[in-house]
Design a protein that fits this description.
0% of the residues lie in helices and 49% in strands. It is mostly beta strands and 91 residues long. A 4-stranded antiparallel sheet has the order 1-8-3-6, with no helix packed on it. It has a 4-stranded antiparallel sheet with strand order 2-7-4-5, with no helix packed on it.
Length: 91
């Protein structure tokens, strides 16, 4: 089944796991837990998002989303859990 234009996908990433996506100008990704690093094709910047933060693509092209630190438990330990949400059409 094809994703609808506005379907949102939530993905859990393992520590260090990368996910290749198709960036579209104006599309937004949100970090739901942990931290992620985003690098866009032909863009020297590295965007780092913490839980609750969003990034809106400012150019089309491939992008790599990589899990950084996982969310912390009540004792401050890294749980290894990183989660993102983004439009399903970008996957």
């Amino acid at each position: 089944m094809a994703a609808a234009e506005d379907d949102i996908c939530v993905r859990r990433l393992a520590p260090g796991q990368g996910l290749n996506v198709r960036g579209e100008t104006g599309s937004t990704i949100q970090c739901c837990a942990g931290t992620v690093w985003i690098t866009q094709e032909t863009d020297p910047r590295v965007v780092v998002l913490a839980a609750g933060h969003r990034f809106t693509w400012d150019r089309p092209g491939r992008a790599l989303v990589r899990a950084g630190e996982g969310m912390k438990d009540e004792w401050g330990n890294d749980t290894g859990i990183t989660a993102i949400s983004l439009p399903a059409r970008l996957l």
